[in-house]
Amino acid sequence: MSIKDKIAVIGIAQTKFGENFDMSYEDMAVEAAFGAMEDAGVGPDDIQAVWLSTFDPSITGGMGRAGSTIVDVLSLRDRPVSRVTNYCSSGTDAFRNACFAVASGEYDVVLVLGCEKMRDVGSRESLVKGAAEGGHPVWGKGMTAPGMFAMRATRYFHKYGIGRETLAKVAVKNHYHGSLNPYAHFRKEITVDKVLKAPLIAYPLGLFDCTPTTDGAAAAVITRAENAKSFTDEYVLVKGLGLSVGVGDRVFFDPNDPVLNFQSTKEAAKQAYEMAEIKDPRKEIDLAEVHDCFTITEILNYEDLGFAEEGEGWKLIEEGKTYKDGEIPVNPSGGLKSLGHPIGATGVRMIVEVANHLLGRAGDRQVKDAKIGLAHNLGGPGSVATVVILGQP
What we know:
Number of strands: 11
Order of helices and strands: EHEHEHEHHHHEEEEHHEHHHHEE
CATH class of the largest domain: Alpha Beta
Distance between the termini: 20 Å
Structural class: alpha/beta
Radius of gyration: 19 Å
Shape: globular
Largest sheet: 9 strands, mixed
Mean pLDDT: 94
CATH superfamily of the largest domain: Thiolase/Chalcone synthase
CATH architecture of the largest domain: 3-Layer(aba) Sandwich
Oligomer: single chain
CATH topology of the largest domain: Peroxisomal Thiolase, Chain A, domain 1
Number of domains: 2
Strand order of the largest sheet: 3-2-4-7-1-8-11-10-9
Low-confidence stretches: none
């Protein structure tokens, strides 16, 4: 089912991403959701259904485990609220499900809300603990996200002859963009030298190669395209959607794992490009928010999304082509690297960012003449990916 130009995003909002110790899960949900509703010119009585994205409710005592977490604070009782979790793709998958529900005609106006509280516990009490204590008795023991992506980085270095300096330039770019973003966790520019001298986390990835642990929420209100103008004159259209689960969680035990690309991203992009009728993404996509959980991942994303040929993604950052004023701006928000990664909120935040550029609202980080934008999430060890393409009417 193609829903190209059938769904409009009419309201968007997000909280600041960072160490939001003074805000509860509900506080963040309220700020993002009511902000999006105000932007759309609607209230709780107009919302017919909600898709809630939260990845790990155990961190906050179960907040976000079900839709019941938000119905009271958002005045949404007696409405269907579906909680979505799909690794780091949770937010974009929630958006995708909401789009299909509206396109089917079942609902007219719905809310997509991503919210995650991660800073109220130490790292060893959250995702690291789950990886260390759960699952297979051998697989995953001692394995961390930096470790998994570090192996891909060393293989890329070996095959294509680059080094840590190239990865550092991804971090420098995204921190520069983040310095322009009032919602970012980190708003300071850094240098290549600072990246290279920072403590190592998992060679070759250092502190500045890794996304921080962060709190945050983001929301979007959507409706059918033919109804958009009855709410607002400022809206964007959904052009394409793609979701792929390309491999199981034990990707490193898969003899067919290509190591230097993520099949889930390539397939999700293929689906979204076909729906959006995009033939040459490097020329037709004006900006992209991609899943830079680690600096090496952004480079691999360049290739998997069709912005560069295989083995040539590193050239885009070396030549400065992915800066906000470059040939193919990538992560003008600052990306996960600068904003942080509150997992359930990240995908929705990307959609908010892309929409802001298409509407000319992105301030100092605005991409000039942006008409088509892409949001991409990569989840787990690379097993699941989502791609959303938005465009001006």
